[in-house]
Each structure stands twice: as C-alpha cells, then as structure tokens.
Amino acid sequence: MRESTLSTSRSDRLPGYCSKGAFLSVITVPDQYGVNELGEVPADAHLPTSFGDFRIRVFHEENTGLDHVALTLGDMIGPDPVLVRVHSECLTGDAFGSLRCDCGAQLEAAMRQIHDVGWGCIIYLRQEGRGIGLHAKIQAYNLQDHGADTLDANLLLGHPADARDYGIASEILGAIGIEKVCLLTNNPDKVVQLVQYGANIVERMPLVVGVREQNLQYLTTKIDRMGHEIEDERLNGHRQ
To answer: Is 204 a catalytic residue?
Structure first.
C-alpha cells in the first residue's frame, strides 16, 4: 500500500502563502466592512445544489499534489451506516454529459439518493480516466473508436487497466468521522481496496444507471473483464 499525506490547506505554490501555511494580507474587502486581513481560511463551505444543501470540503494530497473533495449532507455519525459514493473524476461524463460511460449518471444518482435518504457523502477523487489522466484517457477513446475495448485501450497505451488507488478515500472517511459505510458501487475492487486501507464497509449497494446503447460495450467489458457487478436486461441482451 502507498503512503499518502492528507492536508486541508494549500501552503505551497500558491501566492500569498508563507512557508508555514499562514494566509498573508492578500485578500481585502471594501473598508465599510471593517475587514482588511484574513487569517488562514479553511477549504470548507456550504454548497447548495439541485440535489440539496451540501457541505464541501477539500483535502490536499501531498504525494500527488491533487485536491480531492468530500461532499456531505447531514450528520456523519451513526448508528446506521453512512451512504457513501467514492467517485473518480470523469470530466467527459461529469461535466460534458458524455454517453460513452455511466459516470455522470452515477454521480447524479448518488447525489439524488443521498438527498432522498437525508444524509450521506460523495468523495470525489481526482483520478481521471481510471487513474491514467485526461490526455491518456482521450487517447484511449481514440483507440476505442478503432475497435479496442476500454481495458485493452489502456494496456495498448502502456497503462494499467485500472490505476486507481483508494487509500486517500479511506483517509478522508476517517477525517470527516464516518465509521460505518454503505458503499454505492458496482466495483468489487473498490470495496477490497477500501477495506484493506482500513475503511469499515458494512454494506455494498449497486448503482446501475445510465445504461444506453452508446455505452453497452463499455459496460459489458467492465462486467466480463473487470468483475463489475452490473445487472440490466439491456446488457444481458447485448451479451447474448
């Protein structure tokens, strides 16, 4: 397992920060407010969304330089397991509504389900393209356009089929006080990794949404070659 360092502040590389992470006098507001200098500002704020009023917190991972997000609704303390979606970044699906995958649909469904339950957490990890990055992901799309499946495309580029690491997600769960998790996922490897890193996964709940003609082959590959547990009659008909 890799080591990772979790921080809730950005004290390097950003102008206006001293070496110890204290925020210098670079933010000012009009004099009538009586405020001319701010101390260290936490990356922690209220975030109203179309799926409810969430709280957003950013966690900086020193080893990778990436900022990850915990989006929470309600109280994270039991006694029931907290509904959690550990979601890896997918710019094309999450932001642009791509139909090549089910990522955007899964993120929306998870937020809606957490709102309906009344409490839960989205951990948004900056692991684009199953961990290979956006540039390589679009290269993989190019290979898929020429007939490769989603797994072989990564391998042909010299990358692992799935390079994601969920150690930081386990750390974030601990940092925000989630002790028992009901995990929204179709991916058994995600469960195995999180448990190995110390997360207490007491239940797994499938999240099968966004199945379309455009992503049937993608999803079928995830089932047949990557062990994902996805049950949908449209997929079953396609695999026949």
So the answer is: no
SS3 70: strand
| 162 included as an active-site residue | yes
Q: How many domains does the chain have?
A: 1
Residue 15 has, within 13 A of its CA and on its CB side, a CA count of 2
pTM of the model: 0.83
Catalytic one among 12, 44, 162, 225?
162
The answer as to whether 234 is a domain residue is yes
Is the pLDDT score of 10 beyond 60? no
Measured in whole angstroms, the distance separating CA 111 from the mean position of its chain's CA atoms is 12
- In tens, the pLDDT along 210-235 reads 889 998 888 888 888 888 888 877 67
Cα(197)–Cα(165) distance, rounded to whole angstroms?
Answer: 10
CATH number for the domain that contains residue 105: 3.40.50.10990
Task: Identify the active-site residue in 12, 164, 232, 234.
Answer: 164
Residue 99 belongs to domain spanning: 43-127+164-239
